Amino acid sequence: MFGLFKSNPTAKLRKKMKQVQEKSMQAQRRGDIRSHSMLSAEADELWKEIQRLEGGDTK
């Protein structure tokens, strides 16, 4: 019951990752491959951090 108000440490990271992926997709659609590449790398790092926090694989 007391865990109800406890924040999920990965929820913010997942939200940020989703936003970065959206920006990456928009950059790719515009033809801005450099920005797309940088944003994709950022999203990948966020995913690795999420996996580390959840105790999953870091492959």
Description of the molecule:
The chain has 59 residues and is mainly α. The chain has one domain. The chain contains two helices and no strands. Helix 1 (9-30) runs antiparallel to helix 2 (33-54). The longest helix has 22 residues, at 9-30. The mean pLDDT is 89.
In short:
With 59 residues, this protein is mostly helical. The chain has two helices and no strands.
Strand/helix succession? HH
* Cα shape: elongated
Strand fraction band?
A: under 5%
The count of DSSP E runs of length 2 or more, i.e. the number of strands, is 0
List the helices and strands and how they pair.
Blueprint: H1 9-30, H2 33-54
Helix pairs in contact: 1-2
Descriptive keywords:
75% helix, 59 residues, mainly alpha
